[in-house]
Amino acid sequence: MNFLDDAYFPECQEKLVVCVAPYGPQWEPADFPEEIPVSMDEQVQKAVDCYNAGATILHVHVREEDGKGSKRLSKFNELIAGVRAAVPDMVIQVGGSISFAPEGSDAEAKWLSDDTRHMLAELDPKPEQVTVVVNTNQSNIMELCTPEDRASTSFARQEIYDAYEALVAPSTPPFVREHLRRLQAAKIQPHFMISSKSSLQTLERMIRAGVYKGPLNVTWVCAGGGLDSPDPYSMTNFMQQMPDGSTLNLLAQMRSNLPLNTMAIAMGLHVHCGIEDNLYAPNGDRSTSVQQVERLVRIARELGRGVANGQEARAIYGIGKQYGSTEETLAALRYPVGKRPIRPALAERKVPQPMSAARKVPQPVLAERKVSA
To answer: For 114-173, how does the pLDDT look when each residue is reduced to its tens digit (9 = 90+)?
Structure first.
């Protein structure tokens, strides 16, 4: 991404797209009982409340009636239908992990199998987006979670801490290729959750190989523990790799998220908030997803930057758009499209010719050795 002289002027920036993740599958309802929705009606109402606060992208995970993270796609279908009926303007983005929360107190935290995650392409009604991780990552979300963050939550229990410390997000190249094939066939847009420069480079190679032909919308996930860390050096290094025709959201963990999101707003990027990322206000008090959205909207308005509605967010993200060829995709994303030369740029090698008999080097003539009597 390039930043010209007027890049920070709000009239030169896109309107801000606010993505909210209000379901937080890693938390137990007792961690924030007045905030974590459990019943289907409560989950739909949470989407409505976040939309009214200014969020236009809803990052979806689903809970069962007992409060545990649901791994049933039928529950996703139910929530998507409910949100569509209540707030049709909202863009629905389904979390590609489905639910990584442990099923019991002694179970490990893990993502579901490749085959199960592929079935997200069969959701009915269809979401606008499904998130896709590129490359298998160690996702130790405990590493940047302070003791104060964990206090008075389920993360304070050793077995839960151990489960999330060992969390791995599996996403091998065969999985990504097949997942992108199915999502594109279903006309569901992938939203890429990228945690390092190397994974972004892998995605670029896949685009150049024709695996994906569509808009490039990325959330940089910097949560440490195998992922990038939320420091400005890592951030700007990552941004330099993003092509000008893409969009970028910034996402960090816990109280790091607000400062990072504030920088995103100032730079013309987009934001990701909600209790899935962070439970706290800057002073350490609990902060609801609605309060987090309202805070970002207020900051954006202080900087003179408008906040996108649902239709504007669809246009910014290119929802429903696919490209016809790799060349068209590279041009739309503004990746360099120069072709490789047919021959490597090496000097022509001259093959030595056999020397003619006339040009043969004569052998030295040895003088006769005279022997004295």
So the answer is: 788 898 999 999 999 999 999 999 999 999 999 999 999 999 999 999 988 998 888 999
Q: Where are the beta strands (DSSP E) in 27-123?
A: 57-60, 91-94
Measuring CA to CA, how many Å separate 246 from each of 197, 260, 369? Answer: 15, 19, 88
pLDDT digits (tens, 9 = 90+) for 251-296: 999 999 999 999 999 999 999 999 999 999 999 999 999 999 999 9
Question: What is d(CA 78, CA 62) in angstroms, rounded to the nearest whole number?
Answer: 9
Report residue 297 as tokens: 């909207």
Helix axes 197-208, 173-185, angle to 10 degrees: 60
Q: Give percent helix, percent strand, percent coil of the chain, each to the nearest 5.
A: 40, 15, 50
Residue 356 pLDDT: 59
298-337 exposure pattern, b = at least 16 Cβ within 10 A, e = fewer: ebbeeeebebbebebbbebbbbeeebeebeebbebbebee
Which range (20-29, 103-112, 232-241, 245-254) has the least confidence?
Answer: 103-112
H-type alpha helices, 31-103: 40-53, 73-86
Instruction: Give the C-alpha separation, 126 to 93, whole Å.
Output: 10
Smallest Cα–Cα separation from 55: which of 42, 67, 46, 68? Answer: 46
In whole angstroms, give the CA distance from residue 354 to residue 61: 76
Using an 8 Å Cβ cutoff, are 38 and 289 in contact?
Answer: no
Contact present, 167 and 290 (Cβ < 8 Å): no
Write out the H or E segment, with its range, that includes residue 204.
helix 197-208
Among 96-105, 160-169, 176-185, the range with the most confident prediction by mean pLDDT is 176-185
* Contact predicate 304/290, CB 8 Å: no
In a 13 Å sphere around the CA of 285, the CA atoms on its Cβ side amount to 5
- Token duo for residue 314: 């669809």
**Whole-Å CA distances, 10 to 5, 191, 217:** 12, 25, 21
